[in-house]
Structure formats: structure tokens, C-alpha cells
Prior knowledge:
Shape: globular
Structural class: mainly beta
Helix content: under 10%
Oligomer: single chain
Largest sheet: 7 strands, mixed
Number of strands: 45
Distance between the termini: 30 Å
Amino acid sequence: MITFFVLLSIFFFPIICAQGEWHLLHASVGVSAMHMQLLHNNKVVIFDRTDFGPSNLSLPPHLCRHDPRDLALQTDCTAHSILYSLPTNTFWPINLQTDTWCSSGSVLPNGTLAQTGGFNDGDHVLRMFSPCDDDDDGNCDWVEFPGYLSERRWYASNQILPDGRIIIVGGRRRFNYEFYPRSSNLYSLDFLRETRDVDENNLYPFLHLLPDGNLFIFANTRSISLDYKRNRVLREFPPIPGREPRNYPSSGSSVLLPIIETPAVQAEVLVCGGAPPGGVSAAGHGNFLSASRTCGRLKVSDENPNWVMEEMPLPRVMGDMLILPTGDVIIINGAGSGAAGWEAGRSPVTTPVIYRHSGDVNDTDRFSVMSGSKIPRMYHSSAVLLPDGRILVGGSNPHVYYNFTNVIYPTELSLESYSPPYLSPSFSSIRPQILSLNKNIRYGRPFLVVFKLCEYRINDGFLSANIIAPSFSTHAVAMNQRMVVLRPESVMKVAENRYRLSVVAPSTPEIAPPGYYMLFLVHSDIPSYGMWVKIH
């Protein structure tokens, strides 16, 4: 056995000068990507709304949608959802029947996307999309259950729970929550009523499942810890300083920072961006105020938590925040002024920012500005992390209908990817390559990962195994996103440039709810490609 040296890569940061690269995958996929969900078969479900008229992608023959309640087109022979294949960079239409405008979703432990709510005929609908084998993709499609939800869920948020249920929270003028699978109960939550202001700013509340099993909920400027089983607010945290609303339509974004299993597990939330007070109303009158440039961190596991504030290099509203395999956070898409809503944003921010969450809050290099895209991604854009470490980016449609001419920001049907600096070929010698691993892992049990590494920096490098739950992304909210840094046991050299790592699976479903995760090995801050594992 070689000398054991496995530490947490998220605390080591080599100097990387590159700013990453953008790649256009498709000039048009026919549908604007308002919502995205990566599945464990390396397909991405992408969908828009259905109530604006035809898209730019036809459905297969004889699959027209007939909906007398549709607000724009009662007979529609175009697709409003696609399935995108990562391995082949191809896509094909799938058939939505009801309106998914501003809806929500979570992936169940078996890998099926449970997608909830929307507008008009879709606001009480549960939809299911189950991954198919590669040779059966043509038969994969949505299955819909009208009237399943107890309440209208438009601009609601979802979170997968330790027992595999999904909690569905809020929505426009809905101050309550419910569960999938459904029960006979509907649970009132006055906190949502209290956080609604003249511009609302309590929609798409930020939800994070805490390691103690309770639910962190952030709306407007306030946040609570909720015991959802007993419908009790356990504590209210201090308001985030600055009075800047952070939820839709002021639309900042949030992540639960990586969870590291220690005897006393800590939980820390990051909230960034948004609009100033009154910014939504001002945008409605053509006055586009500068977006917020502040971020706040709250260590919710502390006995007396307080927000620690930082400033981003650029103001941003409608930015997507995603946890990278390294534990850093990328902030991508959005605008520099205005708010979310029809024609409400200006000054596209096309340059991502990567936030290094470890280290001293006063470090001047915690934020790094990356290379920019040529394509504005404004209202109704989305982004998800992919298993190869890229970010898939699509959407942007700040108009009631698809509009490609005579507007400031035309409807965007393209799909592109952003490759962070860690994907540079110059790091190939220090990039781990996973050769084999246990794909079904049990809570609290050790398992093995065999990997190849040409230049193992035992003396100055660090190795970690990190798992990430894929997010349901829409409206600057990445629902269910989660990283857990696994506890290492040992690493052994088994052949030339080949090693065997023993790590321990998450101890409880409160730390990592059951289901599929991407597992990344990270060496000297350079990640491997992710491999899917199922935790149960």
C-alpha cells in the first residue's frame, strides 16, 4: 500500500489561467429550453411551455396535440419538449399534452422525472418521464396525470426527501405545501404569505434539504428551517442584509454548499444576485435598475448563524448557480439590470463567474470571471451540469410568443456548452480516469473505485470522491442539486498508473436522499468524468 494521502480537493486550488471555452452544439433544437433535467442514462429532458403557439420543431405524424383549453392553438402539431442525447449530440421531439409554463420537478429514486404543475390546463398536473434504453428511445414519452395535485402549482419549488417522497412548496398565491405521492393533507405555510410583497418576490422559493432532515426555505429576504413532517417552523434565520429580494421575479439564485461528512456535519447556504427593492415595478415602467452584485453565506448549522456578505465582480439577476465537480460554484446566464418577466431584463451578462467557496472571505480571488458566450441568455434560460464536467446551456425567451425579429433579445432556440478551465487538455496527466466502481452503493458502507492517473501528485496533490445530484433547472433555480464529499478510507496502487480507492457511502438519506448521483474523482482540483451511482 502506498502512503495514504487522500484529502479534500476542494481546499486546494492550483492557478489556472484559462477562462474556459464555449461550444455551439446546435443552432436550433426547435424548442426554447425553459426547463432542463439530466437523467442517469445521459439524456437531458428539455421543455418549454405549450400556450404560445407553434414551436420550430414538428411532432411525428399523427401525434398532434388537441387541447380545447389551450390559450393559443387548440390543435398543435409541433413539439414543446425534446430529449437530447449527450453521447450522440442528437435530439428528438417528445410530446407534452398540458402546459408546463413555470413548473417544477424532481427525479425519483428509481430515476424517473416527476414533473409538477404549470399554467392553465397544466397547473394541477403530475407528469412522469422514465428513461428508456438506447434502443427504445423512440418509445420514451411523457405520461400525464391531470388533476393529481391538490393545489395549483405555478412557480412552485420541489425537493426530494430522505424517504423518496417529493415536497412541493408554494406557487403563485399558494401559501402551502403538499407531497408526492399525494396524501389527503395539504399543509399551510404562513411564511410564504408573509414574504409576499407588492412584486411577489416569494415565488420559486429556494429549498435545501438539511443534513438534520429538516427543510431550509428562503423566500424574498427571509429564511426558515421547517420540520415538514410536523408542519412546524423550528427557527427563523436573520434576514439577508441589504433588503434586496432574491426570489422570483427578482430572481437571484442559491446553492447548498458541499456537505462534508464529519462527526458534526455542517450545512451552509449561498445566495447570490437578485434585483433591488422596487426593481420589478421599475422594469415594468421601462426603468431597468442595476441588479444586485452581492452574495450571502449562512452557516445554518451554527448555533447563532449570521450572514456573511461578499460582492460578485458583476451584478446579476436570473443567473443559474451550479456546483461544479470540484466543489466550486459557477454562476452563469442572466442580466445585469432589470428583473425576470416579459421584456423586463437588460444588459445580458454572458460571462460566467466561478466562485471558490473555501478560504478567507476577504480573499480577492474568490470570484474568477470566465470567457463569455456570444449568445445572451435572459429570461427563461437554463443550465445543468453534465457528467463530463461541462455546463449545458439553452433557452432565453423574454417574449410572450416566439419572436425572432425586431426585438432586442430574440427568442433563443440554440443549445451550447461551456467547458470550465479544468477541462483543458493541458491537465490530462493529472486528470483521474475512473475504470470501474460499484454502481449500487449502500448507506454507510465502503465501496471501491479503480482509477487511472498518469501523474499522481502524492506530495502536493489531493484526491477526493464527490457525488452530485443532477438538478431540475428553471428560472435560475437548480432544484434538488446537492454535493456530498465522501469519506475516504484508503488508496492503493494496484498497477502502473492504476489505483484503488476505498470510500464510504453517505451515512444517511438525510445527507444524500436515495437515487442517482454523478460520482467524480478530483485530483489537484482536476475532475474525472463523472460516473453514475445509485444510492439506496
